[in-house]
Design brief:
The structure is a single chain. The chain is built from one helix and nine strands. The protein is mainly beta. It is globular and about 45 Å long.
Length: 117
């Protein structure tokens, strides 16, 4: 499982769908422009509530974003097991100890429409 760049429909993973609910995940999202240049990064963490091949993975957020939810795509390529240890989020300074999973994504901004056509 590795960082995901949206390039086509993923294959659903029933094993991950059974394993993931109840697991603690750290989510990292990198936003890039249409040419791939870095725009910004977002990080959050929480417990995966559900996994569905149509709706994806719903995460109940914890820490500074407690009370919110975040939906991840139904793409198992965006998940990897987390090594034991402490993870410090750059954005908030929060430290997460021994999460179960890491979920990393790269989101590309759409190309600007060409109005000269």
């Amino acid at each position: 499982m590795s960082e995901v760049e949206e390039d086509g429909p993923p294959a659903w993973d029933d094993g991950l769908a059974v394993y993931a609910p109840g697991k603690y995940v750290i989510i990292g999202i990198t936003y890039v422009d249409a040419e791939g240049a870095f725009l910004r990064r977002a990080q959050m963490h929480g417990v995966i509530e559900s996994a569905d091949p149509e709706r994806g993975f719903r995460v109940a957020l914890r820490g500074e974003k407690e009370g919110g939810t975040y939906d991840l795509p139904p793409d198992p390529r965006g998940f990897q097991p987390a090594e034991p240890g402490e993870y410090r989020l750059r954005e908030t300074g929060e430290t997460i100890v021994d999460p179960d999973l890491l979920s990393t994504w790269t989101l590309h901004a759409p190309e600007a429409a060409n109005d000269e056509d």
